[in-house]
Design brief:
The chain has 10 helices and 20 strands. With about 375 residues, the protein is of the alpha+beta class. The protein folds into 2 domains: about 1-180 and about 295-370, Aminopeptidase (3-Layer(aba) Sandwich); about 180-290, Alpha-Beta Plaits, CATH 3.30.70. It is elongated, with a radius of gyration of 24 Å. The structure holds zinc ion (ZN). Zinc ion binds near residues 82 and 113.
Length: about 375
């Protein structure tokens, strides 16, 4: 089996190198160049950078790597990872102790999503080392995932020659995420009436007080079994002696059910508008789409292949519906069925982020087996 030839030390080396290359959202070029250099050493591999930078504002496009197959009849597949890392992510120094990678503590590690990228680098060696018949394999390395799935949204779909694939971008191990919610942003401006706080407070309507009234009435947290909502940012006011005229409130609503998403949006809209009016102010609220929901059918070839792969390795695989949004939401929406695989990364989006080499290797075994089964 391909997976028998994985070299953990080589994989660990790629992972550490990747983590220590700075790549905040929209500034992924150093990682893209490192990968272009790596893949261009293998004969026959085609490395393309799409034109998405024109629309994302990143300093590179998405990187699409195509590894030609050696078996015309085999069904091709893609793997996807994002190249950007959530802040704080500048000057990452990797510590490897007792089989676990961590940052030195003042940044994230960046295993989200560089564990996946390192696995695909190792996979590339495996594909070239033997004579196993192989399908066409593509890697899609995106930009700006953490700041709004920007690379996936603006991906040049024409460059993708295969019908489905797997995103290596989740916590846990031996799992496949087949469902994830849709999300919208909440963006509201509450307007009251400014007045001097000491001279004529009777003439003022405080937008901050309105904001308190409104947010205390909104359905927040886990709204129902399929829906969550959050207000995450409040900005407003001008000075300590001025009754505040405007407050901007931003948040999000997610739901696995489009009907419940629409219902929750309507409750938010009415709460903002009605309560503002009741207290003598007004509110304008928008719900810009963030990403669409995804739900891959368990009978779909992308899920069946994952089950075969797990079976070949003698493992069971957990198929789960999760609460996050990722590039896979966009790919599924664009007609590229995508299942998200856990890589073993832990405490992601925090400076405690860590990942065990044994879990990276375990994921690499699944990825290598997916190619051939
Ligand atoms: Zn991620």
């Amino acid at each position: 089996m391909l997976s028998d030839r994985i070299q953990p030390e080589r994989l660990a080396g790629y992972f550490k190198t990747l983590c220590e290359i700075d790549s905040p959202g929209l500034l992924e070029k150093p990682v893209a160049e490192y990968l272009q250099c790596f893949f261009s050493k293998f004969p026959g591999i085609v490395v393309e950078v799409d034109d998405s930078a024109l629309r994302t504002g990143a300093n590179t496009g998405n990187l699409i790597v195509t590894i030609p197959g050696r078996d015309e009849g085999a069904t091709g597949l893609f793997f996807n990872c994002h190249m950007d890392v959530i802040p704080p992510c500048i000057g990452v120094q990797v510590d490897y102790t007792d089989g676990v990678f961590r940052s030195k503590g003042d940044t994230v590690l960046g295993g989200d999503d560089k564990a996946g990228i390192a696995i695909l680098m190792e996979l590339t060696h495996l594909l070239f080392e033997g004579q196993t018949p192989l399908p066409l394999v593509q890697f899609i390395f995106t930009v700006g995932e953490e700041i709004g799935l920007l690379g996936a949204e603006h991906l040049d779909r024409e460059l993708i020659q295969v019908g489905y694939g797997y995103a290596l971008d989740s916590t846990g191990i031996d799992n496949g995420i087949i469902g994830a919610p849709a999300a919208v942003y909440v963006d509201a401006v509450i307007t009251g009436r400014a007045a001097h706080a000491g001279l004529n407070p009777e003439d003022g309507v405080s937008a901050i007080v309105l904001c308190g009234e409104i947010t205390s009435q909104l359905p927040l947290g886990r709204v129902d079994s399929e829906t969550t909502a959050n207000i995450g940012l409040v900005e407003g006011g001008a000075a300590t002696n001025i009754i505040p005229e405007t407050v901007r409130v931003r948040g999000e609503i997610r739901s696995h059910c489009s009907r419940k998403l629409a219902q929750t949006i309507e409750v938010f809209r009415r709460t903002f508008e009605d309560l503002s009016a009741k207290y003598g102010g007004r509110a304008e609220v928008d719900f810009p789409p963030q990403y669409p929901a995804m739900l891959v059918d368990e009978s779909a070839p992308v899920v069946q292949r994952l089950k075969r792969s797990a079976g070949a390795l003698g493992r069971s695989i957990d198929l789960i519906v999760a609460g996050g949004g990722s590039d896979a939401n966009i790919f599924n929406f664009k007609g590229l069925p995508t299942v998200i695989l856990g890589t073993g990364m832990t405490d992601v989006h925090s400076n405690n982020e860590n990942i065990a080499l044994s879990d990276i290797v375990r994921t690499a075994e699944m990825v290598a087996t997916l190619v051939t089964c």
